[in-house]
Design a protein that fits this description.
four-stranded antiparallel beta sheet
Length: about 650
């Protein structure tokens, strides 16, 4: 028989040559022998109960076609294939032994374990209820036996001594198990710490990858904007050429047509002077503002730890009076008492250029996409198109050689500000709005509507398409009208309880949305105007000092004042929804979907988390306490999507993840 043939035995120490079981000839011979053995076992004269061997060998033959399974199967054979097949194993057992075998090479290279406890000890300490001494499998003694055991025994009896020793052994065993569990918990903590460290390293790598992707995205955005501008210029040239060609095709008028007759002269002189004035539509402005929205938004700052500094820029040499930016890591515009208005690339921390045109310091500005509006102490408002700046975000800049650009990208914050290249912003001015007679202290625009507030105690509404003032609102006249119509003095101009300061502006802040206008003034009142009628719709009374900042959404209006408080109003009812106070006057405030940030006369930014209803500080006053430096007071703050910008009295601008 095949099972009695001594050549059927397969030994582990067989040489790996031509006659080895791992060779092709050995595999073929083994296959023939296994087939013969299976045929003999499933023959009609064999035991009928051996049918499962046939099924098992069929599965084995199917798996043995894989080279890896063949090597594992042949090297694990401690007995002959005949003994393996003729054993009383089930089909699943045979398959499991054939397919789940670990070779000796793998078993020899097991990692060393420094743990002093075995696997059984850890299992016994973790699941004591599954052991023989556990409660789950402890046999319940009868009540009578328990009563007999609880009978008092003499202290000097051997039984009492044996009982005490047994209890001591039980307690020692329990103490040992607790020590094992404690060491296992400590090992798990170390393992988790190692995993956290590895994950932190992986997170840093992915953050660097995300930063690189966003830089490439910003470069593509810049190229797309540049290409759209070139297409627009080319289209304008084509339209101009077509108009010239069409004018050349029309016949010229004769000389008789150019003469003015007496009848035409009489008709011209008889017209009204107002009919002869050119209309606003016939006086073309320099350039209409064209909004260019970004096609992608940065998200890198969302993965930073809240309160971590992203960048610090030495922007100006004097107090920051106004600043704003479009998107995180986008374009920022800053103004200072040094009469300079600078445009910055927040991604590289580099100055793009200077905006020249104002003859005095800029007190208010707003950036919306690529359009910038600036209001100055020279009583003028200027509009700019920042997309027309000559700037290469890769490093080469307008009017400079490529080898001189690296110094600006790696500017030291402790050094003096580096002057940007001349002429880089020459094509940015759009037009100038001139109607106020005193300095501009607040402005806000949305779409084609801009509203400005001035120290001349008026608010003016501007049409940005026509470039002219369409409505003037007198705050003092509106307060007097409210006093006469209401008779209660709710909307009248009132003197605040706090003494007036020279820094308090008559119009401290305003915001416009379609026909709705909110305005905060030096008397501490917030007036809600309807631009369609030019009347005050509602007055919010609560602040005891001049209002310096405000912002509203569809439900709430948030205001900050020199009375050291921030108030949240419910626009539906006109009542105060919430309020909180600080130690110093509030000079600037802004909120996004989650946070309200404010500058309150300290070297940090005050942050109020609306979701968690908690206050916390963010800024250089916290991060530089260990270095011994004393940062300057924060004057202006802006936040968008958790990206915070703060401007200080020493001209430094900081960017933070909030």
């Amino acid at each position: 028989m095949a099972d009695s043939d001594p050549n059927n035995a397969i030994h582990d120490d067989a040489p790996k040559g031509e006659d080895s079981i791992l060779s092709s000839r050995g595999i073929e011979a083994f296959t023939r022998k296994v087939t013969t053995t299976a045929s003999h076992l499933v023959a009609p004269s064999s035991d009928p109960s051996g049918n499962h061997y046939h099924n098992a060998m069929a599965q084995v033959h199917k798996q043995l076609k894989k080279p890896g399974i063949q090597r594992g199967m042949f090297t694990m054979a401690r007995t002959t294939p005949t003994d393996l097949v003729r054993s009383k194993f089930s089909t699943a057992e045979i398959q499991s032994r054939a397919l789940s075998y670990l070779p000796d090479e793998m078993l020899q290279h097991l990692p060393e374990n420094d743990n002093a406890y075995s696997l059984f000890q850890g299992f016994q300490a973790t699941f004591p209820e599954l052991s023989h001494d556990g409660k789950k499998h402890r046999r319940r003694v009868s009540r009578g036996r328990k009563m007999l055991e609880e009978s008092p025994t003499a202290p000097d009896s051997p039984h009492h001594l044996h009982k005490l020793k047994k209890e001591r052994s039980s307690l020692m065993h329990e103490l040992e198990m607790l020590g094992i569990r404690k060491n296992m918990a400590s090992s798990e903590i170390h393992e988790i710490d190692n995993k956290i460290a590895n994950l932190a390293g992986m997170r840093r790598i992915i953050l660097e990858r995300l930063a690189g992707l966003e830089q490439e995205e910003a470069l593509l955005e810049h190229d797309i904007v540049d290409m759209e501008g070139r297409i627009e210029d080319a289209q304008a040239l084509v339209d101009e050429a077509e108009s010239i060609a069409a004018a050349a095709d029309t016949p010229n008028k004769s000389d008789d047509d150019d003469l003015v007759t007496d009848q035409d002269a009489d008709e011209f002189m008889s017209k009204s002077i107002y009919e002869k004035l050119p209309s606003a539509s016939s006086t073309p402005s320099k350039r209409r503002p064209k909004t260019m929205k970004r096609k992608s938004m940065p998200i890198l700052h969302e993965h930073f730890e809240p309160g971590s500094m992203i960048r610090e820029i030495k922007a100006h040499a004097d107090n920051i009076t106004a600043l704003d930016f479009d998107v995180p890591f986008g374009t920022m515009v800053s103004a200072s008492l040094d009469d300079a208005v600078k445009v910055w690339d927040l991604n590289a921390g580099r100055c793009i250029g200077l905006l020249e045109g104002h003859t005095a310091s800029v007190r208010a500005l707003q950036v919306e996409d690529n359009i910038l509006a600036t209001g100055s102490m020279d009583a003028t408002i200027r509009l700019w198109d920042l997309s027309r700046a000559h700037y290469d975000p890769q490093g080469s800049q307008f009017g400079r050689d490529d080898e001189d650009d690296d110094g600006m990208a790696f500017e030291n914050p402790d050094d003096q500000p580096v002057d940007p290249p001349e002429g880089s912003m020459a094509d940015c001015p759009l037009f100038t709005l001139e109607s106020h007679v005193d300095e501009i202290t607040a402005l806000h625009f949305r779409g084609d509507v801009l509203v400005s507030g001035s120290a001349d105690k008026t608010l003016r509404q501007w049409d940005l398409v026509k470039g002219r003032c369409v409505q003037t609102l007198d705050v003092m006249w509106a307060a007097a009208q409210a006093s006469v119509s209401i008779g209660t003095g709710e909307g009248t101009w009132r003197q605040t309880n706090r003494p007036a300061t020279k820094s308090a502006d008559f119009v401290g802040a305003l915001q416009v949305f379609e026909s709705a206008l909110a305005c905060g003034t030096a008397d501490g009142m917030v007036r809600l105007w309807d631009l369609r009628s030019g009347q005050v719709h509602r007055s919010l009374v609560g602040h005891t000092g001049p209002v310096t900042c405000l912002q509203f959404d569809d439900v709430h209006l948030v205001t900050g004042s020199l009375d050291r408080s921030i108030r949240i109003w419910d626009l539906r009812t006109g009542s105060i929804f919430d309020a909180y106070a600080y130690d110093n006057p509030v000079t600037s405030m802004m909120f996004d979907s989650r946070r309200i940030v404010s500058a309150a006369g300290e070297d940090v930014v005050k942050v109020y988390d609306k979701m968690e209803s908690r206050q916390w500080d963010c800024g250089a006053g916290i991060t530089e306490t260990d270095t011994g430096r004393t940062p300057a007071i924060v004057e202006r703050v802006r936040i968008k999507d958790g990206y915070l910008i703060e401007g200080r009295r020493d001209g430094i601008v900081g960017a933070w993840a909030c």
